[in-house]
Write a structure and sequence with these properties.
mainly alpha
Length: 100
């Protein structure tokens, strides 16, 4: 019981600190910050899978499955945003053809 309460306090503290850190990042830096931290999403996904593998009760399995689902969505979303950001910096090639 004590371990569960301590884990809940850690989760709440991590959520609060994460919100405070992200809310202070300027808008222009959100996409590069996300692309630079995609590896963290992978680590979170692996941790969620390990937690799901250690689950013993139905509630733990449900929470673990939701954690894996959200972590996978977060990782995929990060890569999609990064790909869109990189597309903005590619040259379209139209300028070379119009110059001739």
């Amino acid at each position: 019981m004590i371990e569960g309460v301590a884990a809940l306090y850690i989760l709440m503290l991590a959520a609060f600190v994460g919100f405070e850190v992200i809310s202070r990042v300027p808008v222009i830096l959100h996409t590069p910050l996300m692309s630079g931290s995609n590896f963290i999403h992978g680590i979170v996904l692996v941790g969620a899978m390990i937690a799901l593998g250690q689950a013993e009760t139905g509630l733990e399995m449900t929470i673990g499955f939701i954690a894996v689902l959200l972590a996978a969505g977060n990782a995929v979303g990060g890569y999609v945003v990064t790909e869109r950001m990189l597309e903005m910096f590619k040259s379209s090639g139209k300028g070379k053809e119009q110059g001739k």
